[in-house]
Amino acid sequence: MTKKGVKISLEKGLQNQIRDFFKKGLEKGVFDAVILPVRVPGKDSYAWILMNNAKLIDQANPVPPVMPVQGAKALKALTRKGNGIINVATIMRSCEIRAAIELSKLNQVNLEKITLVSYDCPGAVPMKGYNRIPEEMEKSFQNALAGKDFANDKMKEVCGICVDFANSPADLHFGFAGMENDGILFSNSDKGTAILDTLKMKCSEDDSQWKNSVNIIKEQKSKNRIEVYKSIQPEVEGLDNLQTTFAKCIGCHNCQSVCPICYCRQCYFDSSASKQTADYLQDKAKNRGGIGFPRDKIMFQVGRMAHMSLSCVSCGQCMDACPVDIPVAKIFSYVAAKTQDTFEYHAGTTADGAVPLKVYKQDELNKIHELIKNAEPQGSQHE
Amino acid sequence: MSDWQPKILAILCNWCSYAGADLAGVSRLQYPPNIRVVRIPCSGRVDPLFIMKAFQTGYDGVLVSGCHPGDCHYLSGNYFARRKFAVIKPLMEFIGLEPDRLQFSWVSAGEGERFSEVVTKVTKDIQKIGPITKMVKGV
Ligand code: SF4
Ligand code: SF4
């Protein structure tokens, strides 16, 4: 199904187009404030800033090379206690939008007064590379953006396997993949359509060219994804391999605190309930011939997999934050594909519906019923 | 290894399977003494982490038993339990635990006999798989 969108000239650059859009929106009152990334004074990172004046928008970079704080976390901070009276708009990467959608399904973000805008994401530069050589990284990111290069190897590894780079349920989306000098701005929701109407932006441009290009890139990325999953499998499948991979984990729990989806106020693994007495541990060590510290390295990850992999959006934040370079996000992406597939769920890609553990159907998961049946005593009369 | 006996954690719903176990006891039905029972309000309360913890602590198997579909005391808890169960299975495969170490069954309060059959069957299954060695290392 082809869609119509607003033709956008990219002559002045995508960033300027987006800034103009937000300024116009503020001016016409379709939203009262915006949240945009602004480069920090030290020039080696970005911070999300809630702002409502056009001058500040000029200082913002709506499409920054890095993702120091996952945008969904900024929205969570803003709406944790419910939405306010003002309408706020923001532009984020697809994974940030998808995380925000997941969080709204989990009642952690309130999107009622938020307008989400996304764009064709060329990926994000890993924070660790960026903060050492920011200017160089700015340049290579700008080149990737201008060159519409969606397979740039300077980006995070998970970006190379992201099939949703141009696909998010944001209210509005700036597309430009595979297009020559123009881009296309289109709406995915009633909210988005109303905004375009108020701003008198006419949807006359056909999205088929953009869509075709996106599909071609997507196909390549799906192939990469299969390859990466194949390569990570021997490293992480099975407890021995997991233990080898996480042997160097220092237990800092960075991976959890930067994860947009890990939203619990207190994690079980940080609580005293998870801690054991010296006697217990000494006993364990005696029985096993030794135990390692910090404790629960694998259980912590398995717990996270059990609790949040159904909503993992493969944003790569955890891997970016790991001080000892464990490929956490690749592992989570791999596991998430398994658990999400069970429910034919793809985290954050649809604005409506519920997360898998919040709903059920009476007649479903026949595989599980098979298992139950296999476990039945012989000759049992029950289903 | 011949005298090895599996230890199985049985997580039973208060309203059906636990009562079923009670009935089995009252009716003096025999079943293997390998299970250690934890009573919970509803099978929907079972967090995947409970199960992983049980394996980490050294249980050779886990049996979760709740009400039959449609019979949940809280109307839908066992349907949610089924969904959680569907998440744990691929995770167990991922970390290389035999998925059969975890078993799920529906036993109602009136099914004392069925309870003893289920426990017998589960114990036999776990016996076949053998002692858990994987999670018991320095995890
Ligand atoms: S687990 Fe890692 S990749 Fe998945 S949502 Fe959390 S931070 Fe992003
Ligand atoms: S960020 Fe890395 S080192 Fe820290 S807890 Fe996570 S895996 Fe371990």
Can you tag this structure with a few keywords?
heterodimer; A: 383 residues; alpha/beta; 2 domains; eight-stranded mixed β-sheet; 43% helix; 11% strand; globular; B: 139 residues; Rossmann fold; four-stranded parallel β-sheet; 41% helix; binds iron/sulfur cluster
SSE layout and pairings?
The complex is a heterodimer of chains A (383) and B (139).
Chain A lengths: L3 E6 L4 H14 L5 E7 L6 E6 L2 H6 L11 H9 L8 E5 L1 H12 L8 E6 L7 H4 L3 H13 L10 H4 L11 E4 L6 E6 L2 H9 L4 E4 L1 H29 L2 H7 L8 H4 L20 H11 L8 H12 L8 H5 L6 H15 L23 H10 L8
Helix pairs in contact in A: 3-4, 9-15
Chain B lengths: L7 E6 L3 H10 L8 E6 L7 H10 L3 E6 L10 H19 L6 E5 L5 H18 L10
Parallel strand pairs in B: 1-2, 1-3, 3-4
The structure holds iron/sulfur cluster (SF4) (2 copies).
The site of one iron/sulfur cluster has 13 residues of chain A, from helix 11.
- Overall average residue pLDDT of chain B: 91
Radius of gyration of chain A: 23 Å
Biggest interface pair, counts: A-B, 46 and 44 residues
Biggest sheet layout of chain A: 8 strands, mixed
Low-confidence runs of chain B: none
Question: How much of the residues of chain A is beta strand, in percent?
Answer: 5-15%
Tally of extended strands of chain A? Answer: 8
Placed side by side, the strands forming the largest sheet of chain B appear as 2-1-3-4
The oligomeric state of the chains shown is heterodimer
Major pleated sheet of chain B: 4 strands, parallel
Distance between the termini of chain A: 44 Å
Total number of helices of chain B? 4
**Shape summary of chain A:** globular
CATH class of chain B: Alpha Beta
